[in-house]
Design goal:
- The protein is α/β, with parallel strands linked by helices and about 260 residues long.
- The protein has a single domain, classed as Carbamate kinase (3-Layer(aba) Sandwich).
- It is about 35% helix and about 25% strand.
- An eight-stranded mixed sheet has the order 5-8-2-1-11-13-14-12, with helices on both faces. The protein has a two-stranded antiparallel sheet with strand order 3-4. Strands 6-7 form a two-stranded antiparallel sheet.
- Helix 6 packs parallel to helix 8.
- The chain starts with a strand and ends with a strand.
């Protein structure tokens, strides 16, 4: 089956909130030929709803610190509201989709992140991906739609970085398919200047990545994206791209990750 290309696409929460761009993205996603998987974020909406409930959101280097109250909100928002809305929209476009979190079919098993300099709370790091179960869905022409929630072997739900979820799924599935990983978010790609949306770095090698880190050009939410990208590349993922809602058609400038 390695002659088949599987596209794993991660879409960010800010893009989901823009109705017109999100609608175009979904049409482009449905138009992709061959097997595909969608992973979605939704951090902004989770933050908004948590605020309305009186909960404060804390972040560290682009990653959410999740306390006992936050994991309840995240489960409701990610696994419920956002996930089911996406699945329903895909069904309306004749794309047979199924909404999942890590607990479903033991798809994504994680371990709770150990406390070091920061206690991330109910946050998980992916331990294993059930590629056989996911592939059984793909073989039935069902498109999995994953929220960024994983599960421990003991049955504890954990908030898990959506970029990490997408990268780990792409890595696991690369044993079966030639896998491509797409990070679609609100920017056109990785920017050389955060104030200039047109300053897209079109190609980033591992050497260039280190330079960008040293020069502190990469920060916050872009850190996990690039960290996961290079890990995925080293683990057999064939191609990795970062860009905005037009990325799937490659009709605009974008960033490609290379060796």
């Amino acid at each position: 089956m390695k002659n088949k290309v599987l596209k794993v696409v991660k879409i960010g929460g800010k893009l989901i909130e823009d109705e017109s761009k999100f609608a175009q993205f979904l049409n482009d996603f449905v138009a992709l030929r061959g097997p595909k998987i969608l992973v979605h974020g939704g951090g902004n909406l989770a933050t908004e709803i948590a605020g309305k409930l009186g909960y404060k959101t804390q972040m560290f280097e682009g990653r959410r610190i999740t306390d006992a109250d936050s994991i309840k909100v995240i489960t409701m928002v990610y696994g419920g509201l956002i996930n089911k809305n996406i699945v329903a929209k895909l069904q309306s476009l004749n794309e047979n989709a199924i909404g999942l979190c890590g607990a479903d079919g033991k798809c994504i098993i994680s371990k709770r992140r150990p406390v070091k300099e920061v206690d991330f709370g109910f946050v998980g790091d992916v331990k294993s991906v059930n590629s056989e179960f996911i592939n059984s869905l793909l073989e039935q022409n069902i498109t999995p739609v994953f929220s960024a929630i994983s599960c421990t072997e003991a049955g504890l739900l954990l908030n898990t970085n959506g970029d990490s979820v997408a990268a780990e799924i792409a890595k696991a599935m690369s044993d079966i398919y030639e896998t491509e990983l797409y990070f679609c978010f609100e920017k056109k790609g990785v920017l050389a200047n955060a104030e200039n949306d047109d300053s897209v770095i079109q190609e980033i090698t591992s050497e260039k990545y280190q330079e960008l880190l040293e020069e502190k050009i990469i920060s916050d939410g872009m850190l996990p994206k690039l960290h996961n990208s290079f890990q995925a590349l080293e683990s057999g993922v064939k191609n990795i791209f970062l860009g905005d809602f037009r990325l799937l058609k490659k009709e605009s400038v974008y960033t490609k990750i290379t060796d």
